[in-house]
Design a protein that fits this description.
Elements: E1 2-6, H1 10-17, E2 24-26, H2 29-35, H3 39-50, E3 54-58, H4 64-77, E4 84-89, H5 92-103, E5 107-113, H6 116-124, E6 129-132, H7 134-139, H8 144-157, E7 163-166, H9 172-179, E8 185-188, H10 190-196, H11 200-213
Parallel strand pairs: 1-2, 1-8, 2-3, 3-4, 4-5, 5-6, 6-7, 7-8
């Protein structure tokens, strides 16, 4: 399982990387806007925190040729290597761009995925990751977990190398359920990442251990 942080807030990211075994960061235009910083500054700060971890950056262009130019510009500007994944939406022009970028050796993450077929076609177009949106599907009376499960099954059944990067979560339970359907990766907002590792019974157990150690743990350290 790969855990990634869905944020461009560098101060928050520094705190998360201090204790959480993250393997990268995902961003999009909304996340960059919410960080309150320009793309160059935000990504520059992220890279200082994550080192060689994965960074997923989304294009804003709508035509395939422009998407390709934009992706190459980001890769060059930040001097990125194999840790760079360009996020391309699953549109007609997006699929075209995925094939061009993949053939050029640039990693692609297919984003804004809402159906099993969108994901499967993106995989065939060369995407390294496909990113289905769980909560957004649930919000339109669909079933986000079931869509993720179907996508994972496709990748396994057809022996495809594409990994499923589940995104858009509102609850810890959603993350739990996608993990139980063999998803390869999740990208999660900072608040939920914190909640994944906490439980009141853990706090009680630690408190009890501390109290019971008094007078018995006599080796200095």
């Amino acid at each position: 399982m790969i855990y990634m942080a869905d944020t461009a807030d560098v101060s928050v990211l520094k705190n998360l990387y201090d204790f959480f075994p993250l393997q990268g960061v995902t961003t999009n235009p909304t996340i960059i806007k919410n960080s309150g910083t320009k793309l160059s500054e935000a990504v520059g700060g992220i890279l200082k925190v994550i080192g060689q971890g994965m960074i997923h950056m989304q294009v804003i262009s709508e035509m395939a040729d422009d998407m390709v130019k934009e992706a190459k510009a980001y890769k060059s500007y930040f001097d990125l290597g194999d840790n760079f994944y360009v996020k391309i939406p699953v549109t007609r022009q997006g699929y075209k761009a995925m094939k061009i970028l993949s053939d050029a050796g640039i990693n692609v993450t297919a984003t804004a995925v809402f159906t099993q077929q969108q994901a499967l076609i993106a995989s065939k177009a060369g995407a390294s990751f496909v990113a289905p949106y769980v909560s957004r599907l649930d919000n339109i009376s669909s079933h986000g977990i079931d869509v993720v499960k179907d996508i994972v099954k496709n990748m396994t059944d057809y022996n495809l190398p594409t990994k499923v990067l589940a995104a858009s979560f509102k609850t810890v339970d959603q993350i739990y359920r996608v993990c139980m359907c063999d998803v390869h990766c999740v990208t999660v907002g900072p608040e939920l990442l914190e909640k994944l590792i906490t439980h009141p019974m853990t706090d009680i157990a630690v408190k009890t251990f501390k109290e019971d150690s008094e007078g018995f743990y006599d080796i200095p350290f």
